[in-house]
Amino acid sequence: MRGRGVHSVQVEVVVPFFDVDMMQVVWHGHYVKYLEQARCALLAELGYDYPAMLDSGYAWPVVDLQLRYVQPAVFGQRLYVRADLVEWENRLKIHYLITDADTGQRVTRASSVQVAVKIATREMQLNSPEAMRAIIAARLAQLRART
């Protein structure tokens, strides 16, 4: 089992009818939406959400996405989707865990990697921009001070 990252956020998702395929399970591509919901919550809590990324002059495309399906989710099932920030100095690496909200059983685990691309030049950056690193470091320090 992977350890937690430096900061985690958990969101709840209830599987809607339109995410279920003819086999009566969640179509595999919809899990990515659930990951995105958790990632957005994580980035917002860290103070560097997508609008902040754009304001800083960078886009952050996903360059790698890995999913491991353990058991299918079904219509109406309550899921917890946890996103753990693992790396941010050179790229954004996030690990995810989707579990059944009632039983705690693992449904899916995943990871994503995003890299900074300077919007003005469309040039991929080898390191995360300093402004972003400073924002996240300051926010992590605030969050640690609360605990």
Automatic annotation (TrEMBL):
Please give the Gene Ontology molecular function terms for this protein: fatty acyl-CoA hydrolase activity
Q: Which Pfam families match?
A: 4HBT_2
Report the CDD domains cross-referenced here.
4HBT
UniProt keyword annotations, A-Z: Hydrolase
InterPro entries (alphabetical): 4-hydroxybenzoyl-CoA_TE, HotDog_dom_sf
Q: Is the Hydrolase keyword given for this protein?
A: yes
Q: Which family does it belong to?
A: Belongs to the 4-hydroxybenzoyl-CoA thioesterase family.
Protein name (Swiss-Prot/TrEMBL): Thioesterase
- Organism the protein comes from: Bordetella petrii (strain ATCC BAA-461 / DSM 12804 / CCUG 43448 / CIP 107267 / Se-1111R)
